[in-house]
Every structure is written in structure tokens, then in C-alpha cells.
Design goal:
The complex is a heterodimer of chains A (106) and B (115). Chain A has 106 residues and is mostly beta strands. In chain A, 0% of the residues lie in helices and 56% in strands. In chain A, the strands form two sheets. In chain A, strands 2, 4, 5, 9, 10 and 11 form a six-stranded mixed β-sheet that branches. In chain A, strands 1-3-8-7-6 form a five-stranded antiparallel β-sheet, with no helix packed on it. The chains are: A mainly beta (106), B mainly beta (115).
């Protein structure tokens, strides 16, 4: 079992939809959780950074952490074509998920 | 631009040749990380430096790979006797970090193709 599991998709949604992206992890020692967005041929860029269970909101993005279930989520509201990218969860600098490729169609 | 920069952006080499990549981190960042990323996968950790000290190396980092960060500034990653399986995107990231938990700032990578 991998330490971090992420459904690779691909995921395709219409513009304006709510998108839900998820990761599970097995190591209860992980305390910090990050979501990165990676456009094609670019390096990942940080979207959200959380260290406690519960929700954190930033504009159209909400990160949710459930440490008891070892499950994290990223929600994107009112999705836009510019959100089309690969979304990576990370539990530390050394543990990344495989990434979920998202396409938002106009 | 004061972000993380990597050079070259693309490198095509023949199997058996040596290649070297360079990473210039954000100037005040003390940690520097190297990753390998293949299509459809997330970044795989290779190694990291705290200032000039190389503190951890992944089992993925075979003895053909070596990394340096002289004087705690820029870093180089060298691959000797390249193999076709080395074809990947090599990413560098830096952070201002004392606890290992700070967010990473990535460069745009060096894409290596071994023919």
C-alpha cells in the first residue's frame, strides 16, 4: 500500500461545477497537508496548506482534513476553464500523491 | 523574477552520456529539494539539502546520481551513464524551513530525454 493514494482521474466537468478531489494516507504521523496545482510543462504551485482537521477556505478553494479517517479533500467552487490542471496532494516534502488531472469544459 | 530557476529547460542526450542540471533557489531559502516526475505521476523525492549539507537521499537515487549544493546556494544534479529509464522531468524546489513542514516553491523543471 502506498503511503499516499490519489485517484489519477482524469476528471472532466462543465464550467461552474463543484469539483471534489481526494487523497487518503496511511501514516498517522503526517501533520501537514498541502495541495499543489500543476499546469502542463510547469512546476507545481502551492494552492492550500493546512495542519489541522477541519476546513480551510481561500476564495473558490476549500481544503478539508479528516485525520481520524486519514482523508483529505480539495473542493473547487464555480470551476473555470483556467482551473484545468493536475492537482497534487502532499503530506510532506517527500510524499506526494500521483495527481488528479482535471479538465473544466467551457 | 525571484522564483526558483532551473537550467536547462530541456536536455536530450544519448544513453551512456553524463548530464548535469542546475537549480537556483529563492535566495533566502535554506532547504533545497530534487524530485523526479514521470508522466501521470507525482513528484518522487530524490534528495534534499539544508544549506550545504545533504541530509537525506531516497533509495531511488542510485549511485549514478549525485547532487551538490556548494556554499548553500545553487545546486547541481548529475546523472552519470544515463539510461533510457532516466527520461523524466527533474524538478527542484526550495523552502525557508527549520521544521520540515514549510511549503515548497518549485521551479519549472528540466525535461530529460535519453535516446
Amino acid at each position: 500500500q502506498k503511503e499516499v493514494e490519489q485517484d489519477p482521474g482524469p476528471l472532466s466537468v462543465p464550467e461552474g461545477a463543484i469539483v471534489s478531489l481526494n487523497c487518503t494516507y496511511s501514516n498517522s504521523a503526517f501533520q501537514y497537508f498541502m495541495w499543489y496545482r500543476q499546469y502542463s510543462r510547469k512546476g507545481p504551485e502551492l494552492l492550500m496548506y493546512t495542519y489541522s482537521s477541519g476546513n480551510k477556505e481561500d476564495g473558490r478553494f476549500t481544503a478539508q482534513v479528516d485525520k481520524s479517517s486519514k482523508y483529505i479533500s480539495l473542493f473547487i467552487r464555480d470551476s473555470q476553464p483556467s482551473d484545468s490542471a493536475t492537482y497534487l496532494c502532499a503530506m510532506s516534502a517527500m510524499r506526494f500523491g500521483a495527481g488528479t488531472r482535471l479538465t473544466v469544459k467551457p | 523574477d525571484t522564483g526558483v530557476s532551473q537550467d536547462p529547460r530541456h536536455k536530450i542526450t544519448k544513453r551512456g552520456q553524463n548530464v548535469t542540471f542546475r537549480c537556483d533557489p529563492i535566495s533566502e531559502h535554506n532547504r533545497l529539494y530534487w524530485y523526479r516526475q514521470t508522466l501521470g505521476q507525482g513528484p518522487e523525492f530524490l534528495t534534499y539539502f539544508q544549506n550545504e549539507a545533504q541530509l537525506e537521499k531516497s533509495r531511488l537515487l542510485s549511485d549514478r546520481f549525485s547532487a551538490e549544493r556548494p556554499k548553500g546556494s545553487f545546486s547541481t544534479l548529475e546523472i552519470q551513464r544515463t539510461e533510457q529509464g532516466d527520461s523524466a522531468m527533474y524538478l527542484c524546489a526550495s523552502s525557508l524551513d527549520r521544521t520540515g513542514q514549510s511549503p515548497l516553491h518549485f521551479g519549472n523543471g528540466t525535461r530529460l530525454t535519453v535516446t
